Amino acid sequence: MPPSPDPAAPAAPAAAAPAAAALGGRVMIVMPAYNAALTLERTYADVPHDIVDRVILVDDVSRDQTVEIARRLGLEVIVHRQNRGYGGNQKTCYDAALEAGADVVVMLHPDYQYDATRIPALVEPILRREVDLMLGSRFLGDPLAGGMPRWKYVSNRFLTTLENAVFGLRLSEYHTGFRAYSRHLLETIPYHRNSDDFVFDQELVAQAVAAGLAIGEIAVPTRYFADASSVGLRRSIVYGLSTLRVCARFTLHRIRVRPSPKLTPRRRGRAGDLRVVNDGRPTGDPRPTDAGAVDPRPTDAGAVDPRPADKSAVDTGALPPVDTGTTEPDATE
Description:
The chain is about 30% helix and about 15% strand. It is an alpha/beta fold.
C-alpha cells in the first residue's frame, strides 16, 4: 500500500468539497448518540454543510443534555423510548435517512473522535459510484500518535488481519465509527437482522462483502481525549469474540456449509469487486468495473419527505425495543 496522506492536512477536505458538491446526490449524516452533550457541538461545527442535506441524531435515552443541544443546533432529533444499543440505534438512523431520500448516508459518532471535515473525501467515491461503502481509517495514519491505547491498537490489528484473510480484502481498518454507505447498499443488505450491540458494524461489512459490494477507505486522524467516549476492556473482549463469530459465520456461508439469512442479500451488488480508495487514488489490485452496468437504484429525484417537521419525540424503530446496553463507539476504538 502506498504511503498514506497526512490525515491532518487541511488541503484535502477543502479540495474534495467542491468535487463532492458537483457530483450531486443527497448526502445525509446520522449520529447514533448517547450522552454526547460535551462533544456534540464541536462535532457539528466541523460538518461541511455545503454538501450535507440533513443531519439526523438518534438519541438512546441520554442522561445528559444531548437532546436539548441537538435541538438548539437545528438537528433532526429522534428519541428512543428505551435504550436499544449501538446497533439498534443505527437501524433507526438508516431507516430515517432512507425515508428522507438519502443517496449517501454518513455515520458519524458525535463524540468528536473523528474529523467531520473529511466527509467530502469520504463520500466522493460513493457519489462517483466507484464504491458502496467507505471507511474512515485511522490506520492509514498513526493512531498511536493520536492517543490510541496500545492494547486497542493490538486488538484492532489482530481483528483487521483476520477479517482481511476471511473476506479476501486488503483494508487497513474495519473498526471505525466513521463510515459512509450508498443507498443501494442499505437497500441491498438485511441490516435489520444484525445485532443491536457493537458487532453490528462488522456484521454489516460481512453483508456488503457477501453481496459483492465494493469497499474503499480514506485516512482520518485519531483523536483520543478525556471527553471522548470509549469502551472498556471487558466490553472490548465481548466485541472481539463477537467479531470472531462473524468471521466464522461468513466462512460457513461462503463454502455453503451453513447458509446464513444475515448474509443473504435482498439483491446482488452491482460490481462485485473491491476497490480500495485512498483519497481518490485506487490501490491494491482493483478489477475493472462493468462500464455498461445499469445502476438499479431509483433516482428518487422528486421524492417528498413524508415525515412531519418535528421528529424530536418519535420512536420510529420498526422492531420491538431491546435493551442491549448503552450506545457507545465500537469496542476497539
